[in-house]
Amino acid sequence: MPLTLALALALAAAALTACTSADTTPPHAPAELTAQAGSATSVHVMWQSAAPADGVTSFLVFQAGSLVRELPADKTMVDITGLTPQTAYGFTVRARDAAGNTSPPSASASATTPAAKAEDRQPPTAPPRAAGRALGPTSAVLSWAPATDDAGVTAYDVYQGTARIHTVGPGTTETTLEGLQPDTVYTFTVRARDGADNSSPDGPPVDVTTPAGPGQRPDTAPAEFTALASPGAVTLAWTAPPTGKETSEYELYVNGRPTTVIQFGTGAVPAGRAEHRLSVTEPAGTVWTVKLRARLPDGNWGAFSAERRVVLAAP
User: Is the dihedral of CA 181, 79, 157, 163 positive or negative?
Assistant: First the structure.
């Protein structure tokens, strides 16, 4: 083989080796780990999302050094169940990337499960009052009045729609929610939980609108959205977003899916408060969650309104 060809092949092989060198850098350890007893036999464990640069594909949850859960990278909370009442438990979490590199363990978080209450089937009362406000484009603070329970409240769960997104201890009535989206309307509710894992009804809903981030258009969501059931119908009402022009088209979502586009014809566009009546044929007692968004002057859809839960009435 000529020397020049051999040299070229050697250089190509070296370049290929350099391009395909194994990833041996582990992700950073998960931060802000917390553990909160949710009942006599369960603990709720939460931690901060991984930075995109870490390329995390899964989280490993350890209890006393033993692996108890493996979760995908988009999950940053888990309930560890089947525990013993009146027992202290310690947890750590590690992150793993696509190459199989595992981070060091997070700082440890511990929680002690409360005593079990025999035959406790009575749920706590719902928190009677709640309030919230945005702290910035990606965070909000939520507060509520304490609930009551015959055996004692052991935790408060924060829900966004039907998804539980946060849990705090029984003595906490205010918390900060992180990882939100800018220019978005959120509807939060709080439920109380006791040592037997009985959950209260939802507390009063709280709407929080995060401000727009840098370079984003503010105030594109319909405001003051309401949904009222009556026999055979649901009446929707809202205030148009201040886009500077008439807003004649809205996309309606029911139970998380786009259902119809509400259009107001020329000369019929509401100047302020808009209203639309939907005829329904589903059985009484059917539960809908509804929200809508407006078509903006540039043709794009704006931000969603708050989401409302409505129980259909009998015709």
Answer: positive
Return d(Cα 20, Cα 7) in angstroms, integer: 20
Helix, strand, coil proportions of the chain in percent (round to 5)? 5, 45, 50
Q: Tell me if residue 217 falls in helix, strand or coil.
A: coil
Q: For 96, phi and psi rounded to 5 degrees?
A: -130, 140
How many CB atoms neighbour CB 102 within 10 A?
A: 14
CA gap 50, 71 in Å, rounded: 13
Q: Are 85 and 17 in contact (CB under 8 A)?
A: no
What does each C-alpha distance from 105 to 12, 64, 91, 208, 272 come to in angstroms? 40, 12, 10, 35, 55
For 40, the token pair is 């006599």
Determine phi and psi for 272, rounding to 5 degrees.
-130, -95
For residue 184, give Cα distances in angstroms to 214, 217, 302. 14, 11, 10
Q: What is the pTM of this model?
A: 0.66
List, in sequence order, every residue forming a beta bridge with 133; answer none if it has no partner.
141
Q: How far apart are CA 82 and CA 46, in angstroms?
A: 18
Range 281-300 burial, b when 16+ CB lie within 10 A, else e: eeeeeeebbbbbbbbbeeee
pLDDT of residue 16: 47
Residue 298: the pLDDT is: 67
Low-confidence ranges of the chain (pLDDT < 70): 1-21, 216-218, 298
Whether residue 195 contacts residue 40, with contact meaning beta carbons closer than 8 Å, is answered with yes
- Kindly state the tokens that stand for 161: 């729609």
Q: What are phi and psi of 4, to 5 degrees?
A: -65, -40
Maximum CA pair distance of the chain? 90
Distance of alpha carbon 44 from alpha carbon 276, whole angstroms: 42
| Per-residue model confidence as pLDDT tens digits over 11-57 | 555 554 445 567 788 999 999 999 988 888 889 999 988 888 888 99
